[in-house]
Automatic annotation (TrEMBL):
Any single Pfam family the record assigns to this protein: PP-binding
Function as written in the Swiss-Prot or TrEMBL entry: Carrier of the growing fatty acid chain in fatty acid biosynthesis.
One Gene Ontology cellular component annotation held by this UniProt entry: cytoplasm
Protein name listed in UniProt: Acyl carrier protein
UniProt key word Cell membrane: no
Length: 84
């Protein structure tokens, strides 16, 4: 899965689960400040992302995540590690 495909899937999840307009979801969008994703929503988001990997995600992997691009980068890294 490419980073662009991951971004598109994340946009869909954020729109469907949190009713965020897709136009607001950019790679630079900050989860808390720009998209109003709080800590409880973040946990919910991690659960929603699990099917992209086919396994559980550890919340620790997302400690440094601040933007949508950070999510893409973390997931991409996890997918590459899993394939290796």
């Amino acid at each position: 899965m490419t980073k662009n495909e991951l971004f598109d899937r994340i946009v869909t999840i954020l729109h469907d689960s949190f009713e965020i307009e897709p136009a607001r979801i950019t790679p630079e969008a900050r989860l808390y400040d720009d998209l109003d994703i709080d800590s409880i929503d973040a946990v919910d988001l991690i659960v929603q992302l699990k099917p992209l990997l086919g396994r559980s995600l550890q919340p620790d992997a997302f400690k440094s995540v601040r933007t949508v691009q950070d999510i893409v980068d973390v997931l991409y890294g996890l997918i590459r590690d899993q394939a290796a």
